[in-house]
Amino acid sequence: MTFWRPVAAQVSGLRVRLLLAFALLGITTTAVVASGSYVQARTVILQQAQDAAVMSLTDQLTKVYPIAQLPPTQDELELLAQRLSDRESFAVVVYRDMRAQGGSALADPLTPELRQQVRDGDIAWQRVSLAGEPALLIGTQLALDRPDGTSRPSGVEVYSVRNLVPEQQSIDQLATRAWLTGGLSLLLAVLLALLSARGVLRPVRDLGRAARRLGEGDLSTRLTVRGVDELADVARTFNDTAGTLERQVGELRRMESDARRFVADVSHELRTPLAAMTAVTDVLDEEAEHLPGDAGRAARLVSQETQNLTQLVNDLIEVSRFDSGTARLALDDVDVAAAVTATLRIRGWADRVRADLPSGVVARLDPRRLDVIVANLVANAFRHGAEPVSVRLSADPDWVTIEVADQGPGLDPEVLPHVFDRLYKADTARSRSEGSGLGLAISWENARLHRHGERRGALVAGNGPGGGAVFTLRLPRETTDPGGAR
Amino acid sequence: MTRRRTGRALLAGGLLLGTLLATGCGVRPSAVITGRPAVSGPAQGVGLYLLAQGELVLVLRPATGDSAPANNLALLAAGPEVNERRQGLTSEVPAGLDPVTVTSAADQSGGLTVRTNTAARALSENAVDQIVCTVADAAAQTGFTNSSTPVTIVGPDGARPPQRCPIS
Predict the structure, then answer these.
(1) Residues 6+ apart with CB under 8 A from A335
(2) Residue B158 distance to chain A (closest CA, Å)
(3) N or C terminus: fewer CB in 10 A for chain A?
(4) Which PROSITE patterns match (chain B) (predicted)?
(5) Which domains, ranges and CATH numbers included, belong to chain A?
(6) Which residues in chain B are contacts of A175 at CB distance < 8 A?
(7) Could B38 and A143 be called an inter-chain contact, meaning their C-beta atoms sit closer than 8 Å?
(8) What are residue B58's DSSP bridge partners?
(9) Contact B42/A65, CB-based, under 8 Å?
(10) Average pLDDT of each block of 10 consecutive residues along chain A (486 residues)?
(11) Is residue B165 situated within a structural domain?
């Protein structure tokens, strides 16, 4: 089945079908025309030959008259047979039991049905095959006139045996010519079929190629419209469709980039007032202890929310950098174990995290981004999972793998696909969490930014065998900066 | 659907081609083709009807003078000549047929009457045919009547019913 499908597609392909149709048409037409004219020409040739032979025989026989004696002697019959024989034919004269043959050693070429017809008083002829060669037998009786216009049979029968080989040759020639014509017309039909198949198939092939390019994302693909036929219509429709698609996709992209730029702009605009607010909340924080009751709590709340807002704005700016493709890697040869240890120590997690960091793993990566990723994952584990949180480093020649696991309830299967979505909140009840909701998304983007050839960094979320979420970061050991583009 | 239609077209084409090929190439043997009546021409001499293995056969002899029907009957009664006998010709007409008279009826359709002294009823069928054909031929030759005239043979024992020559 699977083997035959390509073959079947080939056989039922447009080219083969056209070829077959043309060839069939050519063969049929040629066969009908050629064989029709052949049969007609053959009939004409044979009829002319027969008529001429009959005419010649009757002409010769009129010279036999008047007949003065019956029954004839054998000598008379022989003489008559000799007189009627020539190069192309020989005569057989029969009178009752007597028989004379002029020329040719053939035993008895005469057929009983012909003799019967001749005996009945008509000129009759018949084509037969004599020793493999076609021959014409013509027979007549010699009748005697009566004064009243009727005639009486004399009993003498004259047969002429005429070779039809020359006619056979000209008929064979006709046949040869018919075959030749047929072959030539078949050849012509095939050529025409190929030409027209090419004419039809080229636009179709062009169309297919253009559609593929369009599918691959080249929206500027257009076809050259040739002629005014249906295929040209299709090409025109394709161009219109591609044009509309390009316009709409362009519009969408413009809107999207507008939206991103808006986010980036807003984030930047928010930074300045936030800086001022942070300065103020720092003062408020210091004064908070001296403020009584509610005022102190309010001052601390404002300070806390301002910090969160600053974090959110910073994260937004980071994300907008990824979106605009301006994020750059600052690559360095890094001892990964030392870098992770530093990250944990700086944030004061060194004691709370069970770290399994074999030393000596050196990779080329952006240490700042590694720090961001690890900090995010560990913070996440503390925030949503349960302690103990473990960080495990492993490496092979191509990859560096860091696993961050906790002993919490793990990730809900429904949540799993959305873990890295921006501002996605797994727990709707806890809508006001401490995080900005962008941490994992930023980590994911950071991981993907690291790439080397076909290898691309990845961050994968899953659940460990003993429950608890496991985030696995894989980075290529050799990262090359692609030059800004994502 | 398409495949079935293609198949049908192929079949039709094949059948057509097969039919055409079956007509054959070259010169094929044929059945007997019949044309005009046989070649015919004038004859000279006296025509008599003799028998060869019981069949009527026309014999032409050089004319010896008057070719009146009665003379021809006299020649018939004389029997086949030597060379004719050598070729197997016989006659059943008795020698006693002569003398005969041949008269023509007043009207054209009445036919010919042959009067003889031998017993007419005793004549064999072949003899009667010989006489009838010879007389009818001779009468037609002289222009009296046409060759299919009925002939009545009358003898002393009575008359035979009128008869026509079986050879047209």
Answers:
(1) A359, A360, A361, A362
(2) 31
(3) N
(4) PROKAR_LIPOPROTEIN (PS51257)
(5) 14-172 (3.30.450), 231-323 (1.10.287.130), 328-476 (3.30.565.10)
(6) 25-26
(7) yes
(8) B49
(9) yes
(10) 58 77 83 84 90 90 84 88 85 87 76 89 89 88 82 87 89 86 85 84 86 88 84 88 92 90 86 87 81 82 86 85 81 87 88 86 87 88 83 87 87 82 66 68 87 83 84 85 51
(11) no
Q: Is residue B121 part of a domain?
A: yes
Which residues of chain A are within 8 Å of residue B10 when distances are taken between CB atoms? 24
Torsion angles phi and psi, residue B37, rounded to 5: -60, 160
- Which tokens go with A360? 């000596």
Q: Cα–Cα distance between A373 and A121 in angstroms, integer? A: 123
| Cβ–Cβ < 8 Å for A353, A404 | no
Question: Chain A residues with CB inside 8 Å of B87's CB?
Answer: 71
Partner residues linked to A364 by β-bridges: A333, A478
| Pairing state between β A458-463 and B101-104 | unpaired
Residue A122 with chain B: CB contacts under 8 Å? 34-38
Separation CA A48–CA A54 (nearest Å): 10
Query: Cβ of A67 and B44 within 8 Å?
Result: yes
In chain A, which residue's Cα lies nearest the Cα of B27? Answer: A168
For residue A155, count CB atoms less than 10 angstroms from its CB and return exposed for 0-12, middle for 13-18, buried for 19 or more.
buried
Q: CA–CA distance from A6 to each of A392, A454, B2, B71 (Å)? A: 52, 33, 18, 102
**How many domains would you assign to chain B?**
1
This prediction's pTM: 0.57
- Distance (Å, rounded) from C-alpha A425 to C-alpha A435? 10
Q: What distance, in Å, lies between the first and last C-alpha atoms of chain A?
A: 45
Peptide bond into A388 cis (omega under 30): yes
Cβ atoms of residues A72 and A156 within 8 Å: yes
Whole-complex ipTM: 0.80
The reply to whether B167 falls in a domain is: no
User: Is residue B110 one of the residues assigned to a domain?
Assistant: yes
Strand order in the sheet with B112-115: B101-104, B112-115, B151-155, B158-159
Query: Is A152's CB within 8 Å of B147's CB?
Result: yes
Q: What is the pLDDT of residues B16-40, one digit of tens each?
A: 666 655 556 677 888 888 888 888 8
* Residues B47/B138, Cβ–Cβ less than 8 Å: yes
Which of B6, B40, B49, B56 is best to mutate for the A interface (most A CBs within 10 A)?
Answer: B40
**Can you give the residue range of the structural domain that contains B89?**
46-159
